[in-house]
Amino acid sequence: MSISIHAISVPIFVNGLRAMSAWLDKAASEKPEAELFVRRLAPDMKPLPAQYQMASDTAKNAVARLAGIDAPPMPDVEATLAELEERCARTIAFVEGIDPAALASGAEREVELKFPNGMGYRFSGQAYLTGFALPNFFFHVTTAYGILRGAGVSLGKPDFLQHLGPPNIRTPQ
Domain 10-163 belongs to what topology? Predict the structure, then answer.
């Protein structure tokens, strides 16, 4: 049995972005927004808003590259938690709007990433998704989670894995 490029991209990106959005609701009720916006895990890392922006960029750019289309531009201008939530929602709407058939040929599509320093990578679509896009997405999702936890927001593993919902197996005690 094979698994489609759509199945290993869109639902994963959507679950992560929905969780990130929910974390912002909790953060807004527990901590001052201005305090959260300057938080980072280490001095040489980007602050919280950038982690959301980069997770969003990774998700939308990945599915666009795999489908052979342009991703919608989303300038990094969010200045409030509500604006970060809106960016998550716009990203989710875009990736969910991609026709699974458009992603079907994505596994073999050549993807070239070029960085501002002139370096980059060339991948097959499948190698790009599994070796770069998904790990990069989860790097930024996890970093955002760590920043919020470090700031004292009451997040736990169930918040990270909220897409699972409540356990569906109950063993009698």
Answer: Four Helix Bundle (Hemerythrin (Met), subunit A) (1.20.120)
